[in-house]
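Quick illustration, no need to memorize.
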Amino acid sequence: MRSGALSKGDGFTTSANFRARAPWWGGDLQTLRNKIVCSAVELPGISKRLILPLEDSSGDQLAAMLDVPDNPIDSPLVILIHGMGGSEDSDYIRCSAAYYLKRGHHVIRLNLRGAGPSRLCSGGHYHSGCAADIRDALNGLDCGLVSHGLFLVGFSLGGNILINFLSRFADDLPIRGAVTVSAAIDPAQASKRIMAPRNLLYHSWLLKQMKEECLAPGARLTDRERAALTTARTIYEFDNSFTAPRAGYSDANAYYVGTAGWRVVSKIRIPTLLIHARNDPWIPSEPYDRLKRTAAPNIHIVQTDDGGHVGFHAKEHDETWHDKRAGLFFSSR
């Protein structure tokens, strides 16, 4: 990109060092900050609802929000993909959208199948390996929107979905670069971590969110699936009795292995940046350490000691560190 919209002139160092903003010290406070502050992020420009068809036989569609900046420039369209229990209006999604809009980019906040506004036009539900949904959504965009290429950003579970997509379908689309933030690239380890005793409150909250999302009006469920959702006591049980069968896997273990992003990173050909904090209370660091030893030159892995899960609220910066880091990465594409 030569527009300078996401340039080093933003004053952000290319160092991977991260310093937490007071009083959000440690992984838990970094993770919880968005929920604690609960500030509605105002987005500049105007927004337009998009309904994007999916190519399977379900009849499902995805809802997305197209954000048009006040002062648009000729630059790639930015696609933001939320994580588990998220939507176009998640705080971290709106923060990232504001970051790119202020720099002249058009932004699409994509709602995965069954998430947020997508529930109104889809009876199914997303999962960690639903790469084809991303492909279909991007293929459904107006040619004018993608004429300058695409930048993709995936968060948490959405980051793992993005990696699966990049490994299978990226060569057929004008993608200039991609970034994941706190991606759950090893679902089995992530499941064990979130169910650890120290994460009891996180686990209870997330399981409640997942159940409410899947049971929302408009969901296409069998009696067996509804019963499985209602009785699941852990995320593993949820995935074993509901997510895995729906996604075509025999059980949760097969589902975790079959959708693990770390296993397919080697198939990605476009420039990709993976951002992760070692003190993320949800996502272990070991899969990223393993990738660092084998990753190809187009795969860039940045691990910080602090930052939490999709936190990265930095000292002396109003905008999140991961957005600035992603902006610098995209500026070099």
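The chain has one domain: 8-197+264-331.
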